[in-house]
Amino acid sequence: MQNEFEPTEGEGEQTEAIDTVVMLPNDTTATDIADGCREAALTFINESKHWGKAELGMWLTGTYSALTQHGAKEPGQVWPVPLLRDIDARLIDRIMESARTEIFETLALISRDGSASFVLRALIAGAVIRCEDGQREPAWAPTGEPTRLAERVLSLFAVDYLARPGDYESELTICMQCETVAFDGMAKTRGCSHGMQHSALAPRRHSTMPYPPLGA
Ligand SMILES: [Zn+2]
């Protein structure tokens, strides 16, 4: 019998999968990750209407990929971004636009009735993972698991929400007219002043990146 190479049932199985809580590096706190997630998510929602393939690619392979390193199943593995180069620019535009619409509608639900079911969905889908920081305090991190752009961005908002849900009640400001999302308690109280505020909220253009011609 050559069975000795096969693991005996019940043996060698319990060493794995016990207490596999992801530990953050000592100098990284839950707030650090939430800050990064909020900034990256706001960058997408507020600036991507001016983006082309190049900017989306940079966001995915740079900002987003870096944020998912802590929660990734295999740390160090860069999330495999599809070859954006080979995808029609108009399709990229449509994907970004529909992602923005979905994200606006999801965030608007929080403003309207406090529903943050997208956070639960992100957790169930494995888009967000619970971890612990150096002080063994609970923290949350995006995993990079989602395959849809909207879900990737929403996973970043979900991490931020889990770290400080109160901000979403008292500061989250959405203006469909300006197509902007901000955390601004003042604006939430007085309402968006649209054009007046627009220059302050206008995206900073990255002048080094040429914008690919539409429909190229
Ligand atoms: Zn506005």
In short:
The protein has 8 helices and 5 strands; from the N terminus they run E-H-H-H-H-E-E-H-H-E-E-H-H. It has 216 residues and is mainly alpha-helical.
Question: Could you characterize what this model shows?
Answer:
With 216 residues, the chain is mainly alpha-helical. The protein has a domain at 21-74 and 88-165. 46% of the residues lie in helices and 9% in strands. The strands form 2 sheets. The chain has a 3-stranded mixed sheet. It has a two-stranded antiparallel sheet with strand order 4-5. β2 and β3 (138-142) form a beta hairpin. The longest helix has 25 residues, at 89-113. The model is unreliable at 1-8, 10-18 and 201-216 (pLDDT under 50).
Keywords summarizing the entry:
binds zinc ion, globular, mainly alpha, disordered N terminus, 46% helix, disordered C terminus, 216 residues, single chain
* Protein structure class: mainly alpha
Over all CA atoms, what is the radius of gyration?
A: 20 Å
Fraction of residues in β-strands: 5-15%
Number of strands: 5
* Shape by Cα distribution: globular
Blueprint (SSEs and pairs):
Elements: E1 22-23, H1 30-47, H2 53-67, H3 89-113, H4 117-124, E2 128-132, E3 138-142, H5 149-163, H6 165-170, E4 172-175, E5 180-183, H7 185-190, H8 195-201
Parallel strand pairs: 1-2
Antiparallel strand pairs: 2-3, 4-5
Helix pairs in contact: 1-2, 1-5, 3-5, 4-5
The structure holds zinc ion.
Residues 175, 177-178, 192, 194 line the site of zinc ion (ZN).
